[in-house]
Automatic annotation (TrEMBL):
Domain of life: Bacteria
Entry protein name: Sulfurtransferase
Pfam family, one: Rhodanese
Database matches in InterPro entries: Rhodanese-like_dom (IPR001763), Rhodanese-like_dom_sf (IPR036873), Thiosulphate_STrfase_CS (IPR001307), TST/MPST-like (IPR045078)
GO molecular function: thiosulfate-cyanide sulfurtransferase activity
Alphabetical keyword list: Repeat, Transferase
Membrane-crossing residue ranges in chain numbering: none
Organism placement in taxonomy: Bacteria, Bacillati, Actinomycetota, Actinomycetes, Streptosporangiales
Domain annotation Rhodanese: ranges: 16-133, 161-272
Gene3D superfamilies named in the record: Rhodanese-like domain (3.40.250.10)
KW ATP-binding (keyword) present: no
């Protein structure tokens, strides 16, 4: 199953039975809260999912956005109306930087049919599709969260992959090089990691590049389906975007959920700059 759906295809699918569950996960690290954008307008029937509350556990030793427990994630998804027998479509404002994390988490916890709306809310509204402001109260879903649907890395696994495979750092180049670190208290990157900013996975409108273009981009970085590949970022959100782009390109990849914000909690772990 292709992990993306475009506006036209989604509009048709909303008339099918069962129609997909729509999840709005608009989020911005610097704010404002995504619920504000949701209340100004969202896809009809979409339920808001809070990335910080529902798609991550509390910040701490596991990083800024650790993986939520199976029980907590299951409860949040059932509250949003998610069931195993219904497809799910997730979206954010435009470039899937947050939607990818929800896509990845649903797939990791075993949902078989999850896709991301390519271009997000901006593409939907820009195409003249209907927008709603009401907040639906969906019937509870029956989704059961079972971990292990997608591969994950811990810190030791990330270090080994940087040495023996291909570990992609999804952050902006200046953060990777350690020249600028606006979020975490320590700058730099995991030694051996290769910089691959997620901004280069999409075009200026937030649509993903074609699969062949993505495959060529990652191949130039050494990431192919013949290699063991993984990705990390600051806190495991945009790295999920990298995994999504790699999936579109046909390259399986593991996610280091704790990412840089977990890596730096242990002062014995090495740090590279430049």
């Amino acid at each position: 199953m292709h992990p993306l759906v475009d506006v036209s295809a989604l509009a048709r699918q909303l008339y099918r039975d069962p129609a997909p569950v729509l999840l709005d996960v608009r989020w911005n690290l610097a704010g404002p809260p995504g619920i504000e954008a949701y209340r100004r307008g969202h896809l009809p029937g979409a339920v808001f999912v809070d990335l910080d509350r529902d798609v991550a556990s509390s910040p701490g030793a596991g990083g800024r956005h650790p993986l939520p427990s199976a029980d907590a994630f299951q409860e949040a998804m059932r509250r949003a109306g998610v069931s195993a027998a219904r497809p799910v479509v997730v979206y954010d404002e435009s470039d899937a930087s947050a939607a990818a994390r929800l896509w990845w988490t649903l797939r990791y916890y075993g949902h078989p049919d999850v896709r991301v709306l390519d271009g997000g809310f901006r593409a939907w509204a820009g195409a003249g599709r209907p927008v709603a402001t009401d907040e639906p109260d969906p019937a509870p879903g029956d989704f059961t969260a079972r971990p292990g649907g997608l591969p994950v890395l811990d810190a030791a696994g990330a270090a080994a992959l940087a040495r023996d495979g291909v570990l992609l750092d999804a952050r902006a180049a200046e953060r990777y090089r350690g020249e600028k670190e606006p979020v975490d208290p320590v700058a730099g990157h995991i030694p051996g990691a290769v910089n691959a900013p997620t901004s280069e996975n999409v075009d200026e409108s937030g649509f993903f590049l074609p699969s062949l273009a993505l495959r060529e981009r990652f191949a130039a970085l050494g990431a192919t389906d013949a290699q063991h590949v993984g990705a990390y970022c600051g806190s495991g959100v945009t790295a999920a975007h990298e995994v999504l782009a790699l999936t579109i390109a046909g390259v399986p990849a593991a996610l280091y959920v704790g990412s840089w914000s977990e890596w730096i909690t242990d002062p014995s772990r090495p740090i590279a700059t430049g």
